[in-house]
Structure formats: structure tokens, C-alpha cells
Design a protein that fits this description.
This protein is α+β, with helices and mostly antiparallel strands. The chain is built from 4 helices and 11 strands, in the order αβββββαβααβββββ.
Length: 170
């Protein structure tokens, strides 16, 4: 049986949810990662992904500047990095260098892949849509990569104060 409640309380029941990291090259030439909970497939043919980025985030300008980005699905082993990327601003630092995150060059765009992630998708910006306090970016996937070890487990959020209250393997 359902009962009326506030939107925030009901949203708290959607966990666990996927964690994604988007990486775009900002105007200063730094590859800037941001941890996101809002990511989805939007098309199979052509393959497209959508991410939602807050209006105040440094990554918003980076994606608009680069017109391309990588969507990475982090592994459980990347929980600390995912938390860091979501709680620190690329305006103030090079987040990849600060964490010592292993990367490798993207193959089709001017970007980097997160080497320890379960999968990475290189995207060219197709369109954007303002949605209140966020902007949805739709990227056409131009290259896809998967971790060579298929047993590497994906990171999920259980909710919580910082959005990464815990990790559960897939």
C-alpha cells in the first residue's frame, strides 16, 4: 500500500543506483572528471548516452567547451576516487593528478579513459537540454571499451549524505 510522502523521502528509496563518471577537457586543457548518479542510454541506433550535470559544476563548462566527453562506469575498487571526483571541483585542482588515477588515451576523441573502470564510452556531444537546476547532455557513442578482466565489479551508490554511502558489487 502506498501513502503520500515528500518527493525527497520517496527519492531516497530508489537506491542502489548506478555511479558514472564523466570526463571532459576544460578550457585550461585539464581532463576533469565528475561523478554522476544520473546517466542513461537514450538510443541503441545510433548508440547514445545522456548525463545530467548541475548548473554550478565546472564540468558543465568543460563539456560545452570540448563538445565531447567520456562516460566511465567505475569499478568497486574506485570508490574513493568516485567520492573525491564528486566532492571536489576541477576549478581548484587537477582531480586525476590529485588521486593518481590511472588513465589511458581515448581512441576517437580528445579524452582519457579511466583504466580501472568496468567500461568507458567515448562520446561526441549531440545535444543538450536545460532541466531546472541541471543540464542533460546527450552524447553519441563513437568508441566503447571494457576492462580486460570481466570479473571486475561495478560501483553502485546506496545513497547517503555524500551520494556514495556505500558500494555494492554488481
Amino acid at each position: 500500500m502506498q501513502e503520500p510522502t515528500g518527493c525527497g523521502e520517496a527519492m531516497g528509496r530508489k537506491y542502489p543506483e548506478q555511479v558514472a563518471i564523466a570526463i571532459a577537457k576544460d578550457a585550461e586543457g585539464k581532463f576533469n572528471p565528475i561523478t554522476l548518479g544520473w546517466c542513461m542510454n537514450t538510443s541503441g541506433d545510433p548508440a547514445m548516452l545522456a548525463i545530467s550535470v548541475g548548473l554550478e559544476r565546472h564540468s558543465l563548462g568543460a563539456i560545452r567547451h570540448a563538445r565531447q566527453f567520456v562516460v566511465s562506469f567505475p569499478s568497486v575498487q574506485m570508490a574513493d576516487e568516485a567520492l573525491f571526483f564528486g566532492t571536489h571541483s576541477g576549478r581548484d585542482m587537477d582531480k586525476l593528478a590529485a588521486c593518481g588515477t590511472p588513465t589511458q588515451p581515448a581512441t576517437r576523441i580528445d579524452g582519457v579513459l579511466l583504466a580501472d573502470a568496468v567500461a568507458n564510452f567515448e562520446c561526441e556531444l549531440e545535444t543538450e537540454l536545460p532541466t531546472g537546476d541541471h543540464v542533460i547532455f546527450v552524447g553519441r557513442i563513437v568508441a566503447a571499451h571494457a576492462h580486460q578482466d570481466a570479473s571486475v565489479a561495478r560501483l553502485y551508490s546506496r545513497g547517503g549524505e555524500l551520494g556514495l554511502g556505500g558500494a555494492v558489487p554488481a
